[in-house]
Amino acid sequence: MIPRPVSVSLSGDVLLSDGSFDQRLDPSLPPSGYILDISPSGIDLAGGSSSGIFYGTQTLRQLMPAAALRSGAAGPWEVPCGRIVDSPRYEWRGVMLDVARHYMPVADVLRFIDLAAFHKLNVLHLHLTDDQGWRVEVPGWPRLTTVGSWRTSTMLGSRRHALFDGRPHGGYYTADDLREIVAFAAARHVTVVPEVDMPGHMQAAIAAYPSLGNGFEGPVRTSWGISSHVLNMTPATLDFCRAVLDHLCDIFPSPLIGIGGDECPVEEWGGDTTVQPRFTAQMALFLATRGRRVFGWDEILAGGAPPDAVIAAWRGPFPTAAAVAAGHQVVACPDISTYLDYRQSDDPLEPTPVGTLLTLADVYAFTPGVDSDLVLGGQANIWTEHMESARRVDYMAYPRLCAFAEAVWGPATFEDFTTRLDPHLTRLDALGVNYRPLTGPRPWDARPDAPGNPRTLPDRLTELAEMTADLRR
After folding, report:
1. Residue 53 domain boundaries
2. d(CA 376, CA 372)
3. In Å, how far are 112, 290, 407, 418 from 438, measured between CA atoms?
4. Would the pTM of this model clear 0.90, i.e. be above it?
5. Cis link prior to 399 (omega < 30° from 0)?
6. Is a pLDDT exceeding 90 seen at residue 304?
7. Mean pLDDT confidence for 443-451
8. Nearest 5°: phi and psi at 85?
9. Which of 48, 131, 214, 389 could join 29 via S-S bond, C-beta 3.0 to 4.6 A?
10. Of 274, 343, 271, which Cα lies nearest the Cα of 304?
């Protein structure tokens, strides 16, 4: 979130950073709220909790000159005097990072978290596994990483073009890697919610251990899209799933553990649509023994989700309302508002343009669309099929993630946001962020080797209505 005046009245021009800086807790404030007073005599920061102090400190950092954000920079720095009274609109201000389609080294994940926290986002949903790669070691299951974490080639661009780069790609996180990520995030008041997608999106695991599947013996998937190869429901496979979730519970203190549940074909189950709800219920029962709850995509609503499951509502705006109607807590992340892999303009230089057009203004206009205490907040999703590096993630995420962070902190207006965005981009420059320029893509941003597949919004809305027909009955 970019700092903006909230009940602010400027009383002077500058304050030098060598003045006094007092921090204190004030239980009368909202837990994540703060009051930042800056006067010629010093700075006073009151927070409703330690998170409030942290968010007030981020605002103070953003009020300083951009040069203050550079490593090795030396003050003193001047900041405007005044008072800011602020607190977030939503409890869940999240961003999902897909490290399954393209592995991201630990250092890049830490940098991603630091940037998210700088914008006052407080949840990292870490998508750790998919058909194209398994990214977490699990004790007793070594082939998940020796086999499942590597693919022989990667698809270039949209799958309609059937182009491949012919280069192996892979990587995985050790338990110590993940503990480092969790600790780094916690120091910045970010909760890491892990996700191991099951029972679909499991081809990488089945490639490593064919006994988990339904007769498939083959490689980790190299193309994008949805694999038809899903888990079987034998006792041994269910024990495998419990072992994976048990390991996640040992590493991640998050009260929610993601099990995905999305886009799960039923052909290998003889078309039986009741298999998945039964599977989800069993995993929920196991997680309850560890004091945790299921976090799943909105497909798990079909057939009845476990009562305490939290839903990530992604298939357009309707599933958020469906989850609330079913009595579930929900995180709104409709693809037509929050999928940052979607193209940013119609400029032919946009790299691998896929999905519907999602401009800065479109993202800023995000709203869950439902007024209910069951709506925890919102989440932007970064799927990395077409983002092979942290630099490419930067380009697709920023400054749209700035807009999203403000939408879930809110409220303000897009016009007000745009007046503050230009100076904020100088902060992103200082932090080394490869954001997309407001003037449009540069020639070197293009990816002619990885062509896309642009979609129109009317076509996508029609498709989403068909996809969610099971929730509309």
Report:
1. 15-86
2. 9
3. 21, 47, 19, 10
4. yes
5. yes
6. yes
7. 96
8. -110, 120
9. 48
10. 274
